[in-house]
Amino acid sequence: MKADLNELEKGIIEGVAEKTIGLTRELLEKGTEPQKIVDQLKHALDVVGEEYEAGGFFLTELVLAGMAAKDVMNILKPSLASTGEKRTLAKVVLCTVEGDIHDIGKTIVEMVFTAAGFDVIDLGVDVPAAKVVEAVKKENPDIVAL
Predict the structure, then answer these.
(1) What is the gyration radius of the CA atoms in the chain, in angstroms?
(2) What is the pLDDT at residue 143?
(3) CB 3.0–4.6 Å: which of 15, 79, 90, 115 could bond 142 by disulfide?
(4) pLDDT at residue number 62
């Protein structure tokens, strides 16, 4: 498979993490600028969001695409940091509150924020208020998302 940005976008839209991981590594190895990969990733997530809103995709496709995008961002983080290209829009502390064990919505928000350039500190699910306060004091985030 030829590694190019369009193939990467297709892999994200299809939610195929193995494909996007391999393509991302190949693109970096052949010298593609990490920010170009991030821009393509953002475009892919826009397409997925539009398909979801139009009823063409269901929650499963949305989650799979988000997971593939998150894998890409995890691969890109060191490259973005070493080239100075990482542009953090804001720092976010994210969790579901105590008594809520649901994870899907939080995971989607985390993936979208991360792909968009936010630095996300995910505290997990069923998080007590004291832990949130502790994280806010420690991390000094711009946004607290509960």
Answers:
(1) 16
(2) 96
(3) 90
(4) 84
Q: Where does 1-86 sit in CATH, by number?
A: 1.10.1240.10
Does the structure show a pLDDT above 80 at 81? no
What predicted TM-score, i.e. pTM, was given to this entire model? 0.68
3-state secondary structure the chain: CCCCHHHHHHHHHHCCHHHHHHHHHHHHHCCCCHHHHHHHHHHHHHHHHHHHHHCCCCHHHHHHHHHHHHHHHHHHHHHHHHHCCCCCCCEEEEEEECCCCCCHHHHHHHHHHHHHCCEEEEEEEEECHHHHHHHHHHHCCCEEEC
Structural domain boundaries in the chain? 1-86, 88-146
Q: What is the pLDDT of residues 45-66, one digit of tens each?
A: 889 889 988 999 998 898 888 8
- At 31, which amino acid appears? G
Q: Is 127 exposed, middle or buried (CB count within 10 Å of its CB: 0-12, 13-18, 19+)?
A: buried
Q: 127 and 97 in contact (C-beta within 8 Å)?
A: yes
In whole angstroms, what is the distance from residue 115 CA to residue 44 CA? Answer: 10
